[in-house]
Amino acid sequence: MYITAKYDGPAPQLFTSTTLYVELTDANDNPPIIEGRSALPISAVITQGSLTGRKVLSVAAFDADQGTNAMISYSLHFETPQNSLNFAINSVTGVITTATTILASPAVYLGTVTASDGLYSATQSINITVTTQNTLAFSGAGIYQTSISESTEVLTNIMAVSATSSVRKTPHALRCNTILCIHPLPA
Ligand SMILES: [Ca+2]
Ligand SMILES: [Ca+2]
Fold this sequence. Notes:
Blueprint: E1 2-7, E2 14-19, E3 33-34, E4 42-47, E5 55-58, E6 61-62, E7 73-78, E8 87-89, E9 95-98, E10 107-116, E11 121-131, E12 136-138, E13 157-165, E14 175-181
Parallel strand pairs: 4-11
Antiparallel strand pairs: 1-2, 3-6, 5-9, 7-10, 8-9, 10-11, 12-13, 13-14
This protein binds calcium ion (2 copies).
């Protein structure tokens, strides 16, 4: 913009002008906004035994300001503080990963992700469910041995083996019993 000065004294009248440069700087007047923010928790499911560094979920936010006023830092807090030992959030990317091998199961972790620009912040609740890993194992060492006579009749039972599910233990064990038989050779 231009500035003009005018001399109103006795003649002659005088004028002079100069240029004024004004730099408009950004003010931090916009809060971070979480993309797809929901009043309900964002849910994720992982399996018991998930190793350290496994991606669980991510939260992203944008900010309409510029420069440092739009720089967002993410943090993660759990309702039960010691659960923070199990998960970590990348403060720059908002990606949540396991921070240890997840052994607890079944379990539900309730937490809140905060996106902050240093002045304003936005939050999103999260819900991480750990499901039990179901494995099936033969009883004992899983190695079986027996002997039969060469004259054993066809369809004679020679041995029973069993396997147990890790999910359904006693008294409601899921038990699969298999009878090994001698079958006739295919025609
Ligand atoms: Ca901002
Ligand atoms: Ca601004």
